[in-house]
Design goal:
The complex is a heterodimer of chains A (about 300) and B (about 280).
Chain A lengths: L1 E12 L2 E12 L3 E5 L6 H8 L6 E6 L2 E2 L4 H5 L2 E4 L11 H11 L5 H11 L14 H12 L6 E5 L7 H16 L3 E6 L10 E6 L2 E7 H7 L4 E6 L7 H9 L3 E7 L2 E6 L4 H10 L6 E5 L7 H6 L1
Parallel strand pairs in A: 3-8, 3-9, 6-7, 7-8
Antiparallel strand pairs in A: 1-2, 1-4, 4-5, 9-10, 11-13, 11-14, 12-13
Helix pairs in contact in A: 3-4
Chain B lengths: L2 H17 L1 H15 L1 H8 L7 H13 L4 H18 L1 H6 L5 H31 L7 H28 L3 H29 L4 H8 L3 H11 L6 H15 L3 H26 L4
The chains are: A alpha/beta (about 300), B mainly alpha (about 280).
Chain lengths: ~300, ~280
């Protein structure tokens, strides 16, 4: 089921087209990554989804149009902005109460539960300004979950926190995903590949690719690779190539004593098994999985 | 429009307004201005004439009203643009609230905090320094009303600057310029036209009454019994000549139109603005 649907979204700033005919959808319980370099239009797209910017086209959240019923649509969304912006003069508990009330929550017990779950209850009277960037982000993420939104929109969530914070955030995202919530993450850097189910690749405001990670990479002819190093004096390369070509491989290349084989991810195990079945014992085998990070530049170039 | 969200924002902005350094400094200065140390000496020595309160109020309005915008204009001018700069506006508006709720909450909170300062300053001065009793409150009320109206107009002007600006410094500078325009340039401009164009006096002075600072002073003065020529000033005299007994109604209408028009412009611009 589609939680968020964007149809032909176009955003123009003066003479600059920030988004050009962008269409995509986010399904329930999936993590959709919006990838692209700086200036690709990722943040603009998220702000359009939130109804913070005017745009041509249509965006709906659970069927609610963000243009005509922005506040109602935002009640279904949770937003974690790129900048960790909270009211620095407020105490942690007052911040939770304020944002909670803006979300329509006014239950002291619920505020307490959120703070306890996030580990902030003991220091609830400390000022928000005393928190580190990572802690502020953790608090903000906790606040977005206060009303159990259907979809989370995270804008460059890894850009301003340290490695420990990044790992902690990724763990939290896995948990949120398990709860069946949809997550939309924009990113121009690596690190999100492990949690993303589908990708929307933007470059200069245009959709370069959209779909499942493997599907998108396959369209760009980027496939899993297996590196095989044969023992000297053993089976001849040509003999092995013949075996490989019968097993749905896309290409076989030779490089400095290694055979580099391109194949589908699902065929890798079968392929390796068939080599051993023929009695061939390679000196080394290295399997390289598809990775958004590794093929990032190919992705954004389309 | 979510009333609970408006209330939450009102309370938040009210407390934030009272916490603002500028408000604290202004409150101290304004209170010092209002209590008027020489008057304190005179009252303690019982040297004051029976109608001292009226005379004092006219003096106090002429002295303090030009300074009232210095509270609300900068506070209003920096309020929204500061949140634009630090990203809080984007975050707040990403919550399930409408732009109108946000603006009304912001306006109400700032209005309450600045009104508290103005009311507090005048009332504490009146009760503590001048021994004003409850029976004399009716004499003070027109001044308080005029001060609150002026404060509201300046707050709305400040908010308007904050909505159209992208930088806090720009909004602040424009706010200070407006204060300078209403308190200094307006008088100088009127005087220059009066001196240079024969027969322009009624028109120029009529237009001068549109200046919210001068209008607020006149509104306060009209509320005092036994006012003379010197209390009304040149603008007040021309108005009385042109409009007769309708002058106070005209001035009150001018002030209310300021409030209404500014509120509508603020709402219209903010609701349609984009949050970058």
């Amino acid at each position: 089921m589609e939680v968020l649907v964007a149809e032909n979204v176009r955003k123009i700033y003066g003479k600059h087209t920030a988004l050009n005919d962008v269409s995509f959808n986010a399904k329930r319980g999936e993590v959709l990554g919006i990838l692209g370099p700086n200036g690709a239009g990722k943040t603009t797209l998220i702000k359009c989804c939130l109804g913070l910017l005017d745009f041509y086209g249509r965006i709906t959240v659970q069927g609610i149009d963000v243009k005509t019923a922005g506040a109602i649509a935002r009640a279904r969304m949770g937003y974690l902005p790129q900048r960790t912006t909270l009211h620095n003069n407020l105490s942690i508990i007052d911040e939770v109460k304020l944002i909670g009330r803006l979300k329509g929550v006014n239950d002291g017990q619920q505020f307490r539960e959120v703070l306890e779950r996030l580990g902030f209850w003991e220091r609830r009277k400390s000022l928000v300004r005393s928190l580190s960037q990572g802690m502020k982000q953790k608090l903000m993420l906790g606040l977005t979950l206060l009303t159990e939104p259907d979809i989370l929109l995270l804008d460059e969530p890894l850009s301003s926190i340290d490695i420990e914070g990044q790992l902690s955030l990724l763990r939290q995202l896995e948990e949120i995903k398990k709860e069946g919530k949809s997550i939309l993450i924009s990113s121009h850097i690596v690190g999100m590949g492990s949690v993303i189910d589908r990708v929307l690749v933007l470059n200069r405001g245009e959709v370069v690719a959209f779909g499942g990670v493997e599907e998108v990479l396959a369209k760009l002819h980027i496939r899993d690779k297996i590196y095989i190093k044969l023992q000297q004096g053993g089976v001849q390369d040509n003999e092995l190539v013949d075996i490989l070509m019968k097993n749905n491989v896309y290409s076989v290349q030779r490089l400095e004593g290694w055979l580099i084989i391109e194949c589908d991810s699902k065929d890798k195990a079968k392929l390796i098994a068939s080599i051993f079945d023929r009695g061939i014992r390679p000196e080394d085998i290295v399997s390289e999985a598809l990775s958004l990070e590794k093929h990032y530049y190919e992705l954004i170039r389309g | 429009m979510g009333y609970s969200a408006v209330w939450a924002l009102t309370v938040h902005n009210f407390l934030e307004g009272l916490r603002a350094r500028w408000v604290i400094v202004y409150t101290i200065v304004f209170f010092m201005l209002a209590i008027n140390v020489p008057m304190l000496v005179l009252i303690s020595a019982r040297y004051l004439p029976p109608d001292y309160l009226e005379a004092y109020l006219v003096w106090l309005m002429a002295l303090s009203f030009p300074f009232l915008p210095l509270l609300s204009l900068p506070l209003g001018a920096t309020s929204i643009v500061e949140e634009k700069e630090n990203g809080l506006l984007e975050y707040t508006l990403s919550q399930p609230i409408s732009r109108l709720s946000y603006l009304l909450g912001k306006l109400a909170g700032l209005f309450l905090s600045t009104t508290l300062v103005v009311f507090g300053g005048y009332l504490i001065a009146a009760f503590l320094s001048y021994g004003v009793n409850i029976g004399q409150m009716t004499t003070i009320l027109p001044m308080l009303g005029a001060a609150i109206l002026l404060n509201t107009i300046m707050l709305l002007l400040g908010l308007l600057l904050s909505i159209v600006s992208n930088r806090k410094v720009t909004a602040m500078m424009m706010g200070i310029f407006l204060w300078f325009l209403f308190t200094v340039l307006s008088d100088i401009g009127s005087l220059s036209i009066l001196v240079s164009i024969a027969g322009a006096a009624p028109i120029v002075l009529f237009i001068a009454a549109l200046n919210p600072v001068e209008a607020a002073r006149l509104l306060g003065v009209y509320g005092i019994k036994n006012i003379g020529f010197s209390e009304l000033g040149s603008v007040g005299l021309i108005l009385r000549q042109l409009l007769g007994e309708g002058s106070p109604v005209f001035i009150l209408s001018v002030q209310l139109i300021w409030v209404g028009v500014l509120l509508l412009i603020c709402i219209n611009l903010f609701v349609r603005s984009e949050i970058f």
